[in-house]
Amino acid sequence: MSTIEKVQEEVLVEEQAVINNEIVLYNDDVNTFDHVIDTLIKVCKHTAEQAEQCAILVHYKGLCTVKTGSYDELEPQCSSLLEAGLSAEII
């Protein structure tokens, strides 16, 4: 393997590691569909359709990945979801 190929491979691995985090939203018995949808639109910049689909998945499956990206990008969004009373974490 040449030096250039090795550097390209390292860059690809590094890029993959950067976007490996995700915000997972969990179901609860407190929040309404409307609140979850509105919050996802506001915080995660979802379209209305995306937010509704996520809310349905959370309700029936118990959880849903709502955003992927770097930890630094996701942390303030996850905090905003938690402040809105939703159950979420970055994994």
What features would you highlight for this structure?
3-stranded antiparallel beta sheet; 4 helices; elongated
- Number of continuous helical runs: 4
Rg over CA atoms = 16 Å
Oligomeric status:
single chain
Category from helices, strands and their pairing: alpha+beta
Percent of residues in beta strands: 15-25%
Strand line-up of the largest beta sheet? 2-1-3
Mean pLDDT: 90
Q: What is the 3D form?
A: elongated
List the uncertain runs.
Answer: none
Compressed to H and E, one letter per element, the order equals HEHHEHE
What does this structure look like?
The chain has 91 residues and is of the alpha+beta class. It has four helices and three strands, in the order αβααβαβ. It has helices at 3-18, 33-44, 48-61, 71-83; strands at 21-26, 63-69, 87-90. A three-stranded antiparallel beta sheet has the order 2-1-3. Helix 2 packs across helix 3 and helix 2 packs antiparallel against helix 4. The longest helix has 16 residues, at 3-18. The relative contact order is 0.22.
